[in-house]
Automatic annotation (TrEMBL):
The protein, known as: Dihydrolipoyl dehydrogenase
Cellular compartments annotated: Cytoplasm
Disulfide bonds: 49-54
Cofactor note: Binds 1 FAD per subunit.
Organism: Halorhodospira halochloris
Membership in a protein family: Belongs to the class-I pyridine nucleotide-disulfide oxidoreductase family.
EC number: 1.8.1.4
Length: 477
């Protein structure tokens, strides 16, 4: 039995490692338990996000965008490129280096903040007591004043498409393909499915996405979705909605294809692909997280029940990140980690769940914060709308990235900004402007009166704010 820790975090993903760093900054003795092993067989910090999620997928999205730009778009700039070759193995190697550099950086942050990293599987076995199972099967126990559960999430598997690790794979495994599949199937056209489909479509795959829902991207503003659907179709992504996969079959031999059986409104259908990615969502990693005699309260889907400050039903036990309510987003988990660390230290930690930004890193990018037009109508909230197309901005035109728009929703009486929805170039960066405005309870007028540099993409945000009051300067109101 080891004692002396003020707090132990189970999980070293964005929620856990950020919470641990903030705890150490506040003078606490901190340990982090995590059992992630990178594909090279070495333990690694950062969890799913840094190793097989957010970071590697964005690295591949960037690489595929560079290739697509050279092969498809440079001629419009008067540039001719000949003899262009694609080296997928080098692309994967670059992705791995980006990952290793960042996870190594977290290791250095742990060292600088005197955080102890305990490699192994962590389980809560008693109030504030954690059992760690090492790689050799031996166990050790540690105690702390507080325990924070941050084990993250994993890909959902479905019985109609069992993974074999070669022909039928999950999104983690899709990050390590060493050749471009001529025909790629994706089950699920959500955030992960669209991003993975975009990577391999840009590199030359014929991509078909099968989505069970009748609408694409249900939580996203419908006007934004319509723009996105047209853009995805123009890029060659074949998105089929209302499709329920009923079974899969893998042929024999190394070059065997995968046959996907599914049903849509026309009846039974069949699709043949070379590789199939299952990207139907993620579930919380709460299996084997607590011993049987620990009465931790979970819901029917396996999420840990917490209050507004991420406290569980157990004294001095908290849960953060993908295992609790709210969106499974790294930045949401990070803020919860900071909040919990500060509350353990007796400070007033807080997370504003109304201003969590969402991003889909497709081309064009999609980003939003706050409520949609449909949500405001359903709630009976009076609002005004301001939109502005990127096609009307000089910078987007010069960049040859003019698809999309900025859409702002403001309260009809107070003018307070209630939601922002962006589809277009650098939407992931531009959404921060709306998040900051909403954090300060700002109005559309505040954005409209703020001077923006010219020419920039951010001018579209200001013009949309002006449009709320029907006074946009560079489009007809």
């Amino acid at each position: 039995m080891s004692n002396g820790y003020d707090v132990i975090f189970i999980g070293a993903g964005p929620a856990g490692y950020v919470g641990a760093i903030r705890s150490a900054q506040l003078g606490m003795q901190v340990a982090v338990v995590d059992n992630f092993v990178f594909k090279d067989g070495k333990p690694a910090l950062g969890g799913t996000c840094l190793n097989v999620g957010c970071i590697p997928s964005k690295a591949l999205l960037d690489s595929s965008e560079q290739y697509h730009k050279v092969t498809e778009h440079l001629s419009a700039h008067g540039i001719t490129a000949r003899g262009v070759e694609l080296n997928v193995e080098q692309m994967i190697a670059r992705k791995d280096k980006v990952v290793k550099d960042l996870t190594g950086g977290i290791r250095q942050l742990f060292k600088a903040n005197k955080i102890e990293w305990i490699h192994g599987h962590g389980k809560l076995v008693d109030n504030r007591e954690v059992e760690v199972t090492n790689a050799d099967g031996t166990t050790e126990r540690y105690t702390a004043g507080s325990v924070v559960l941050a084990p993250g999430s994993c890909s959902i598997e479905i019985g109609s498409a069992p993974l074999d690790g070669d022909k039928i794979i999950n999104s983690d495994q899709a990050l390590d393909l060493t050749a471009v599949p001529p025909r790629l199937g994706v089950i699920g056209a959500g955030v992960i499915g669209l991003e993975m489909g975009s990577v391999w479509s840009r590199l030359g795959s014929e991509v078909v996405l099968l989505e069970a829902q009748d609408e694409l991207l249900g939580p996203v503003d419908r006007q934004v979705v319509r723009t996105a659907q047209k853009a995805f179709k123009d890029q060659g992504l074949d998105i089929r909605l209302g499709c329920r996969v009923t079974g899969t079959e893998i042929g024999s031999g190394a070059e065997a294809a995968v046959t996907v059986n599914y049903e849509d409104k026309k009846g039974e259908q069949q699709l043949t692909v070379d590789k199939l990615i299952v990207a139907v969502g993620r579930r919380p990693n709460t299996d084997n997280l607590v011993s049987g005699d620990v009465d931790l309260l979970l819901d029917e889907r396996g999420f840990i029940n917490v209050d507004e400050h991420c406290r569980t039903n157990l004294p001095d036990v908290y849960a953060i990140g993908d295992v609790v309510r709210g969106p499974m987003l790294a930045h949401k988990g990070q803020e919860e980690g900071v909040m919990v660390a500060e509350r353990i230290a007796g400070k007033a930690g807080h997370v504003n769940y109304e201003t969590i930004p969402w991003v889909i890193y497709t081309d064009p990018e999609i980003a939003w914060v706050g409520r949609t037009e449909a949500q405001l109508k359903a709630a009976g909230v009076p609002f005004n709308i301001g939109t502005f197309p990127f096609a009307a901005t000089g910078r987007a035109r010069a960049m040859d990235h003019s698809t999309g728009m900025v859409k702002l929703l403001a309260h009809a009486e107070s003018d307070r900004l209630l939601g922002a929805h962006i589809i277009g170039p650098q939407a992931s960066e531009l959404i921060a402007e709306a998040v900051v405005t909403m954090e300060f309870a700002g109005s559309a007028e505040d954005l409209a009166r703020t001077m923006h540099a010219h020419p920039t993409l951010s001018e579209a945000v200001r013009e949309a704010a002006l449009a709320v009051g029907k006074r946009a300067l560079h489009k007809a109101n």
